[in-house]
Amino acid sequence: MEGASGDASGAYIALARWKNDFSRAFQYYLDRSTPHRVERWLGTLAVALIYLLRVYLIQGFYIVTYGLGIYLLNLLIGFLSPIADPEVEGLDGASLPTRGSDEFKPFIRRLPEFKFWYSITKAICIAFVMSFFSFFDVPVFWPILLFYWIVLFFLTMKRQIMHMIKYKYIPFNTGKQVSVVHYLL
User: Fold this and answer.
1) CA 109 to CA 83: how far, in whole Å?
2) For the chain, first and last CA: distance in Å?
3) Chain segment 18-67, per-residue pLDDT in tens
4) Which parts form a coiled-coil structure per UniProt (predicted)?
5) pTM above 0.90, yes or no
6) Residue 40 and residue 97: Cα distance in Å, rounded?
7) The dihedral formed by the CA atoms of 157, 162, 165 and 166, expressed in degrees to the nearest 10
8) What's the farthest any 2 CA atoms get from each other in the chain?
């Protein structure tokens, strides 16, 4: 009786040790990938193309792909939005400059680039794994889902671009920031 209990605790300890070693190795390689932005995105693009090829070849899992598209759209909105949204939060000094005389404040994203990349990659991998289980393959008429997603994408992007224009911010670095006065002189 005691031997069976000892075997179970030994297996649990071995599993916990393996999990710890795996998570450390995973975090090590994740940390090492941080400065390699282009390579990370190319890898994610390759994984996305493999997933899309799988969905195309098996002619299914359109609901999973639609859910993935909605999630990726949500991540994109977080990536393009400032951390301190002037529309939601009160103007307490931590807002974006709205006039030329305002002090320049760098754009800080609500969702940083690395977390954006990691979340996209993880979501595509999860959708890929889901495509191996037939109970996720709900039969739907995919052109309607595609049309609805395109409409949702354009309406959401229109709203986001109007927000950018209203509060005068650009979520991308275009080089060294120079004040408007510098261009006039």
Assistant:
1) 5
2) 88
3) 999 999 998 998 999 889 999 999 999 999 999 999 999 999 999 999 99
4) none
5) no
6) 33
7) -140
8) 88
Give 140's contacts (C-beta < 8 A, 6+ positions apart). Answer: 62, 63
Q: How many secondary structure helices (H) and strands (E) does the chain include?
A: 6, 0
Q: Give burial (CB, 10 Å; 0-12/13-18/19+) of 68.
A: buried
The owner of tokens 């305002």 is 102
- Which tokens go with 137? 């393959």
**Among 111, 18, 23, CA closest to 72:** 111
The domains of the chain are located at 1-33, 40-184
pLDDT at 111 exceeding the cut of 50: yes
| pLDDT computed for residue 182 by the predictor | 47
The residues pairing with 17 across neighbouring beta strands, listed in sequence order, are none
Task: Give residue for tokens 């949500």.
Answer: 74
Rounded distance between C-alpha atoms, residue 141 and residue 62, angstroms: 8
Residues 110 and 82 sit within 8 Å (Cβ to Cβ): yes
